[in-house]
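Summary for the steering committee. One of the milestones for this cycle was to obtain a three-dimensional model of the protein with adenosine monophosphate bound, which we needed before selecting residues for the alanine scan. The sequence and ligand used are listed below.
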Amino acid sequence: MARGPNSFGGGKALVSALSPGSTIGILGGGQLGRMLAIAAAQLGYRCHIFSPEEDSVAAEVAAEFTCASYESINEVSAFAAQCEVITYEFENVPVEPLKRIADKILLRPGTRVLEIAQDRIAEKKFVGEHGGKTARFAEVPQEIRLSEAVSQVGIPAILKTNRMGYDGKGQLRINNENDLGNAWRRTGGQPLIAESLVEFDAEFSVLLVRSANGEVRYWESPKNTHDNGILSWSSLPAGPLIESQQAEARRLATSIAETLGYVGVFTCEFFATAAGPIFNEMAPRVHNSGHWTIEGSVTSQFENHIRAICGLPLGDTALTAERMEMENIIGDARERGMNALSEQDCHLHLYGKQESREGRKMGHSTRLYRESHG
Ligand code: AMP
């Protein structure tokens, strides 16, 4: 039988697993929420999506949908009262309304990691305190501080909005002094972070899941390839350089997750450089570079996230194939994506978005290469 709303009480440790039939609240209505809801349904849970956008691809596959502002305490409280546990698929959810009702909800992961992940400067400082290396960085609270900040980190540099940036949005490369001219306006006239441009050989992510009782499991770290700041490919094996840096990167991600008492899937992105792994950013959620785990791992990132937040045992994260590639279907590439249907051991996921736009993630395909298939 399903448990009553909030039966676990505010902030209390989950003493037993959430019964099948219980409702999981998901803040955010995009493709990550959609894939979480599909995994939850398989385990017998109901999902309630909360999103400010009417057009939600997660709501299409969920039992309940609230379309309201994240800022509305009343709406967020009413939503929370109908859920046994709440999670998020989007790290830019406003934190204040969640903190105001924190004693009435079981939120996994919690609000502290959201505060850190929403602020690139706070994130880099936090990682530094955990012994992680980051790009050199300087704060740019106002336009007048821009040139001083860039000279601190050196040119070439990269400017990023300190908050609300994702998929390379709100970023600008500075290749010479002249690029500083209209940089403040071009990045939206808001506080920035200036970062030194890291010379990396490859990019990779650490994908881990931490259970309610502190058990941690890892998926193999994929090599990630970006185009214009957007992930285009993730592949495995990731190659000797990434493999040699994986352990150090995992140690950092694990120590962060442990400090925060994190529950769920946690992702950290890294640059693999000659000087070792350099932390780029964290995502307190399931991640695009883990989509291959749906077919490429015994337990997907989506299922393990649901298991973790519901207090269930974690599933096996072993690989199911020797080699794999996940390719994002971005913009109007859906037709090309459909070709995946005629390939052997290639798995197509379309997110059900009605309208394709430049840079919009419409789906992905995962190609597996198993020895038995030659
Ligand atoms: P982000 O939104 O910070 O993940 O940046 C998107 C992508 O831009 C990264 O995956 C890198 O490919 C590139 N990038 C971001 N920051 C840097 C940096 N400091 N040095 C070199 N490349 C970067």
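Key point for the committee: Residues 23-107 form a domain with the Rossmann fold fold (CATH 3.40.50.20).
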